[in-house]
Every structure is written in C-alpha cells, then in structure tokens.
Fold this protein.
Amino acid sequence: MLNSILDQLDQLSSEELSTLNKAVVRMAKAKSRFESVAKGASLYEGQEVQVDHPKYLGMKFVITKVNRTRCKIKGNVGSFNCPISMIVA
C-alpha cells in the first residue's frame, strides 16, 4: 500500500503535497499523544522503571510523581523529570 502511494506522489501538485504533509504530521502527532496518554495512565508513583536513553542503560528508577506529559523519577544518579515517551515500564 505504501509503495503505491509513494509511486503516485510525483503526480501531485505542490499545493496538494503541502496539504498531504500537514495531514500526515497532524495524524502522527495525534497518535503520539494517544500513546503517551495511554502509557501515562498505566504509570503510578513508586513504580520501578527504566529510561530509554544510552546514558542510563540498564539503570532502574522509581517514579516519584506522574504529571501530564512527564514523570519525576529518582535513581542512584539523582532525580529528574523524564518524558513519558522515554519511560520503559
């Protein structure tokens, strides 16, 4: 399906491509927001998690506070705010 769409892109005008780009970006952001809300609903204070970042690979953290888009986490390296999208439960 994606290949057929990509083959047809050269037939679109600049205005149509711009409209298509806006629609794709809007849909990608909406899906990201939905996934973040769903993931945030499953997180709770006291939960042990990991962070998806090379600097903190394999380190365990404990959630001390859950906000709308970020969590405050605490570990051996200190405490900091982390985006929900980077948290691995």
Q: What stands out?
A: The mean pLDDT is 91. The helical segments are 2-8, 14-42. The longest helix spans residues 14-42.
